[in-house]
Amino acid sequence: MTTLEAARRRAESDAKDRGYYLNPDPEFLADLIEGLKTNEDRYGYPSCPCRLASGVFELDRDIICPCDYRDPDVEEYGCCYCALFVRKDVVEEKKPIESIPERRPKEKIALARASQKVEKPAEFVPALTAIPLKTKLQMWYCKQCGYVCFREEPPYICPICKAKREMFEEIRATIYLGT
Amino acid sequence: MKIVKVNGKKRSHKVFMYAISTCVWCKRTKQFLKNNSVEFEYVDVDLCNDEDQEKIEKEIIERGGRLSYPTLVVDDKTLITGYKPDKITEALEL
Known about the structure:
Structural class of chain A: alpha+beta
Number of helices of chain B: 3
Radius of gyration of chain B: 12 Å
Oligomer: heterodimer
Largest sheet of chain A: 3 strands, antiparallel
Largest interface: A-B, 24 and 22 residues
Strand order of the largest sheet of chain B: 1-3-2-4-5
Mean pLDDT of chain B: 95
Shape of chain A: globular
Number of strands of chain A: 5
CATH architecture of the largest domain in chain A: Alpha-Beta Complex
Mean pLDDT of chain A: 87
CATH topology of the largest domain in chain A: Ferredoxin Thioredoxin Reductase
Order of helices and strands of chain A: HEHHHEHHHEEE
CATH class of chain B: Alpha Beta
Low-confidence stretches of chain A: none
Order of helices and strands of chain B: EEHEHEEH
Low-confidence stretches of chain B: none
Helix content of chain A: 25-40%
Number of helices of chain A: 7
Distance between the termini of chain A: 53 Å
Number of strands of chain B: 5
CATH topology of chain B: Glutaredoxin
Shape of chain B: globular
């Protein structure tokens, strides 16, 4: 069993890594942390408190906090789906934090549901991973320390050397297959 | 399936809510309805068994909704997904 303190520390660390803030409303944040703890006790991993988990790790992997949809959601809406992670300008300028649309593809939700009827749910994993994210991922590198990441937009700060977003540049690579 | 009824003075609309017990937006929606004395029913989908969860998901999709919570159904026809106080106020004429 995890503790509320441990769940909070992990959230703080996950936010700091990306230059995000945690939800500035103390009551909202306390409820989110409690939801993450409940899910970790229930499923063995902290799946998103605002989503329905299947209980099968491989099929819930994309909704384990911080979820796969956090970065594009924070980029587009200023906060993630459950509103745990919030963009810096939203907190500093006290912009409203609102409930946002679900970015998780509905095919993934359907597969996670279908997996509960079979003996070996992990058999659904290849089909699940084949569902593409509706985002265009690119490679970025930090010009200060060389850190490389693969995501839609560069991070707000470098998780390694804390350089600002402006220090990131896109890597354009061509891969030649065969001879 | 455990359906919870919350009594309220305003009963002119039938309000049903699909929620998740750990979801803070769902909690806010329940509180908003309570603060406005709206009578409503809800089910915490994560606390249901697999069979009921499947039934609920089918219901939401048949009504044209997305599997996103909270989903509020007003008078068996209007669906409101997410915590949307303005839309709830309009649909329930608060």
